[in-house]
């Protein structure tokens, strides 16, 4: 570790991500921040027919994985006051509808071309000093306790694509479930797709450690494939 900040490079399914952890010579601190993989808008103002809700308009952004974004208001809900179960059910319906009606494409790896979930927002996408609130419903109807690192990254990329924020303009994002906060900003343009590198910052705490070992006689030590 180095002072005042230590870089920690992580190999993620989406590619290498570098985190930066404050270090005072004795212990780590907060806030922790990371630089995303290239993030971009995959689709904007996409009309989707959602069973039980009718037609809605969604944006799709990539921030390490793909998410659909729309205001909870389009589904007759309020991201801050509606029951979490109702938000989860509605977001899951959007995810399934988008999967059936829109084909995703990733410019470098088709293995990444899948919709991970839907993020419902308060609709406050234009730049403001006030936090904007969202809830991320991903995978098997799981709810993130945070505003979501890859979700904030994708949302920043969409806002930048739409001209709602500028480079190095920080926004604050709040989880509607726990109230936790992240900040995010587009740091630099990157390549095609009007992609940007996004810096996301928030609090981080130790939750555990793990040690893995490999024994030479283990016949599956290098992994295996399923037919």
UniProtKB/TrEMBL annotation:
Family: Belongs to the proline racemase family.
InterPro entries documented for this protein: Pro_racemase_fam (IPR008794)
Domain of life: Eukaryota
Broad class of enzyme this protein falls into: lyase
Subunit and partners: Homodimer.
Gene3D superfamilies xrefs: Diaminopimelate Epimerase, Chain A, domain 1
Keywords associated with the record: Lyase
Catalytic activity: trans-3-hydroxy-L-proline = 1-pyrroline-2-carboxylate + H2O
EC number from the UniProt entry: 4.2.1.77
Protein name as catalogued: trans-L-3-hydroxyproline dehydratase
A molecular function GO annotation: trans-L-3-hydroxyproline dehydratase activity
């Amino acid at each position: 570790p180095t002072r005042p900040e230590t870089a920690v490079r992580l190999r993620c399914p989406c590619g290498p991500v570098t985190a930066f952890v404050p270090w005072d010579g004795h212990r780590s601190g907060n806030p922790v921040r990371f630089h995303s993989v290239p993030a971009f808008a995959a689709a904007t103002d996409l009309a989707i027919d959602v069973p039980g809700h009718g037609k809605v308009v969604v944006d799709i952004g990539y921030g390490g994985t793909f998410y659909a974004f729309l205001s909870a208001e389009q589904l007759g809900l309020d991201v801050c006051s509606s029951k979490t179960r109702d938000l989860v059910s509605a977001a899951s319906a959007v995810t399934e509808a988008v999967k059936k009606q829109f084909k995703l494409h990733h410019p470098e790896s088709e293995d990444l071309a899948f919709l991970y979930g839907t993020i419902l927002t308060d609709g406050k996408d234009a730049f403001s000093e006030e936090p904007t609130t969202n809830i991320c419903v991903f995978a098997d109807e799981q709810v993130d306790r945070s505003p979501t690192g890859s979700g904030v990254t994708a949302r920043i990329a969409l806002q930048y694509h739409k001209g709602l924020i500028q480079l190095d303009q920080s926004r604050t994002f709040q989880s509607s479930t726990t109230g936790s906060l992240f900040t995010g900003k587009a740091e630099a343009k990157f390549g095609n797709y009007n992609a940007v590198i996004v810096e996301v910052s928030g609090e981080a705490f130790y939750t555990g450690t793990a040690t893995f070992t490999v024994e030479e006689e283990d016949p599956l030590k290098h992994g295996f494939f399923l037919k």
